[in-house]
Design goal:
The protein is mainly beta and 243 residues long. The chain contains 3 helices and 16 strands. The protein has helices at 2-17, 183-186, 234-242, and strands spanning 27-28, 35-36, 38-39, 62-68, 71-80, 83-90, 102-108, 120-126, 133-137, 147-150, 157-163, 174-182, 191-200, 203-207, 213-214, 226-229. The structure holds calcium ion (2 copies). One calcium ion is lined by residues 93, 95-97, 101, 175, 200-201. Residues 93, 95-97, 101, 175, 200-201 line the site of one calcium ion.
C-alpha cells in the first residue's frame, strides 16, 4: 500500500517538476539553474555600443543559453573590480521594434522579500538608446511591482543596439544589450537573486522562464527570481582586496 502511495507521490512530483507551458513555447534550461558569473580581466576593452563590437569582446565571460519559441538567447555575465557586466544577445530578435525592444536585469543582494524592497535593483536598456533607467524597490505601488524610478548611478551603462557583423553567434542583425552595473549599488555579494526580462515587440522572454509569455509581464516578486552566484566567491573577496 505504502509502495503504491509512494509511486503515486513520485508521479505527482514528476508531473509538477516537468515544466509545461500553456503558450506552447519550448524552454531551456530548467527554470532553476543558477547563473554562474565569472571573474574576468578583459573588460576594460569592452565598447558599450549595444553590439558585439569585436570577436573577442565578451569572450571571457560566463555563457548561458536559452531557447524561446525556437529562437536562441545568449546571456554572457562577468564581474571585474567594481562592476558587474551583462550582455544579452537576442539572436531571435531580428525585428527592430522602436522602444518596444528592451531588456531589464534585476539583482537582489540581500534577504529576499515578497515585495521588492530597497535592496532590489533593476536596470533597463532600450534598443537604439544610450539612456539607461534604474528601478529600485521599496515603492508602495503594487502596479509597478513596488519599483520606482531612481536616479542612475554615474557609472551605470545600459545600452541596446543591433549586433551582427562581429557577433560570435549570428551575423544577421539582431537585438543586443550591454550593461555595466556598479556593484556598490547592488552590494558585493557572492549570491544574488537575479531576474532577466527581454522584450521583442510584444513577446517577453525571461529568466526564470516561467515569467515568459505575451506582453505585458510585470517584474515578479523577488521570491520568484532566479539566482546568480559567484562559484569561487570572488565578488566579496575582490571587494575585500580593494579595502
Ligand atoms: Ca560592444
Ligand atoms: Ca524586435
Amino acid at each position: 500500500m505504502y509502495k503504491i502511495i509512494g509511486l503515486l507521490g513520485l508521479g505527482v512530483i514528476l508531473l509538477l517538476s516537468n515544466p509545461v507551458f500553456s503558450e506552447g513555447l519550448d524552454y531551456s534550461p530548467t527554470i532553476y539553474d543558477p547563473i554562474k558569473v565569472t571573474i574576468s580581466n578583459t573588460f576594460d576593452d569592452v565598447i558599450f555600443d549595444g553590439e558585439w563590437s569585436f570577436k573577442q569582446e565578451w569572450k571571457a565571460s560566463s555563457l548561458d543559453s536559452f531557447r524561446f519559441n525556437g529562437n536562441d538567447l545568449i546571456l554572457r555575465t562577468a564581474h571585474q573590480d567594481d562592476y558587474m557586466y551583462v550582455l544579452i544577445d537576442v539572436l531571435g530578435d531580428i525585428t527592430n521594434d522602436h522602444m518596444a525592444d528592451r531588456a531589464i536585469v534585476c539583482f537582489d543582494g540581500k534577504d529576499t522579500s515578497k515585495m521588492a524592497d530597497d535592496s532590489d535593483w533593476c536596470y533597463v536598456a532600450t534598443r537604439g538608446s544610450k539612456n539607461a533607467h534604474t528601478l529600485n524597490g521599496g515603492s508602495p505601488v503594487h502596479r509597478t511591482s513596488h519599483f520606482h524610478i531612481e536616479k542612475n548611478h554615474p557609472d551605470l551603462i545600459a545600452i541596446g543596439g543591433t549586433s551582427g557583423e562581429n557577433d560570435r553567434y549570428l551575423r544577421t542583425p539582431h537585438a543586443a544589450y550591454e550593461f555595466r552595473i556598479p556593484i556598490e549599488q547592488i552590494g558585493f555579494e557572492n549570491e544574488y537573486g537575479f531576474f532577466m526580462q527581454v522584450f521583442d515587440g510584444k513577446t517577453v522572454m525571461a529568466y526564470p522562464n516561467e515569467h515568459s509569455g505575451k506582453y505585458p509581464q510585470k517584474i515578479p516578486s523577488p521570491e520568484r527570481w532566479g539566482m546568480m552566484i559567484s562559484p569561487d566567491r570572488s565578488i566579496s573577496s575582490e571587494h575585500f582586496n580593494q579595502n
